Amino acid sequence: MTSMYTINYALRAHKRDPFIEFIKGMLMTPFVLHAKPIPQTDDPTEKDEEYHMDANVARYCDILSSIEELINEHIRKQAKGVPDQSRLKRLVPSISTFHTQLPLRESFLSANAKHSIAARRFVPPSFNDIRRILNTAQITAIAPKLKLITFDGDMTLYDDGQDFEHDSALVNLLVSLLKYNLIVCVVTAAGYPGDALRYEQRLSGLLKGFENARLSKNMCEKFFVLGGECNYLFQCKEDYHLKYLPETKYQPQNILSWSSDQINAILDVAQENLQRCIDEMKLQCTVLRKSKAVGIVPKPNVKIFREQLDECVLSTQHRIVNYLNSPWGKKNDLPFCAFNGGSDVWVDIGNKLIGVQILQQFLGATPGETLHVGDQFLSTGNDFATRHQCCTLWIVNPDETQGVLLELTALLEAKKSERSLLTLLDHSKILLDSQTI
Ligand code: IMP
Ligand code: MG
């Protein structure tokens, strides 16, 4: 029998992250049973605030250490090719691949030192607390081996539909990443086929920042933009302009063989469904069709509600999947991405999983050496797909991107100093050895 809970959960699945919900549920027990309100009394014998505080920290830490162990077991099963047999898979059936371990306990202690999460008596650890703890844990785990860092565009580097600001605090942070020898790439859904100027316009603040910092040719060439999810690749050149790279240079044969008939067949089905949504919900929208995408964008000064955007996404996803499974749709079975962009809805041919995969192959980085930073990690978002292919940070706006990059650059700096110290020690050893000889 299907319970009301199951029905509610299934209908709201696109608004939930099952792993974060799982952690939240685990932390709820000590919160309910042990995080008692501090007695409002003048009697000194009843004032055991210190005790409650420390006990609560210890309980949260215990739980997070146990979840770390569940992740470690899942990683061991992944390595043996049987991830479905892990305990975590049984507890959170939608769990995906872990590309690194996650020091959750350590990360919680650092968040607690800043935000006193365990001191709260009326508000339990929230979705956002846990999302941020996961981010810090991921940054700590990947910093020593990071090679490729990819960023979503809208809402991650700049506000929705805006351009990269000239005075954005992110300019210096992205310049630092390049100076730490990382490959940096913007992986965005925004698709302007082969049009370097259009991307330059959206990233003008950043490119100007590269010029002001007088980045060397070598550093400039470590900056890429991949537009249309996985379809149009550009590289920054020493003149601080973007250069379009022909698809044949980096795309694997299976992607090069996507035909325009296949692409158009999927986009026709998507467009028909989007138009049906517009008519049925009386949305004030315009339909935009491109060579590898179709979208609906609100008319000027119109806001479409999140529920309506989600309805468009879920019904279009459903419609396309049904079509591709039908006898007449099978021959057009290409990967696609239907997503809620915050104020609009798009269906793109290809997705960011393929985008990250292409970059990893082209630039030589493994999933455990790649980090994607984005804002759309619900199942109706377009950053979600990257999870299978690399480590991820889920941020909600450019300010949070700044926060995670400050954490990351502090660790990269520590790693650099450690390396310089080791080199210095090596030199002194060689010097001492040569003197002994
Ligand atoms: P992202 O967050 O950087 O992946 O960019 C997503 C946003 O890009 C969407 O919400 C749209 O507003 C915008 N966009 C512009 N052109 C396209 C396109 O061809 N496909 C998908 N999104 C597009
Ligand atoms: Mg975005």
Give your account of this protein's structure.
The protein is an alpha/beta fold. It has 16 helices and 11 strands. The strands form 2 sheets. Strands 5-4-3-2-1-10-11 form a 7-stranded mixed beta sheet, with helices on both faces. α2 runs antiparallel to α3, α3 runs antiparallel to α5 and α5 crosses α6. It is globular. It starts with a helix and ends with a helix. Magnesium ion binds next to loops.
What ligands are attached or bound here?
inosinic acid, magnesium ion
Low-confidence stretches: none
What letter string, H or E per element, gives the SSE order? HHHHHHEHEHHHEEEHHHEEHEEHEEH
Q: In total, how many beta strands?
A: 11
Major sheet attributes: 7 strands, mixed
Spatial strand sequence of the major β-sheet: 5-4-3-2-1-10-11
Portion in helices: 40-55%
State the assembly state of the protein chains: single chain
- Distance linking N and C termini: 83 Å
Brief description of this entry?
The chain is of the alpha/beta class and 437 residues long. It is built from 16 helices and eleven strands. Inosinic acid is lined by residues 152-155, 161, 188-191, 228, 290, 293, 295, 341-342, 344, 346, 348, 382.
Comma- or semicolon-separated keywords:
437 residues, alpha/beta, seven-stranded mixed sheet, four-stranded antiparallel sheet, 11 strands, 51% helix, binds inosinic acid, binds magnesium ion
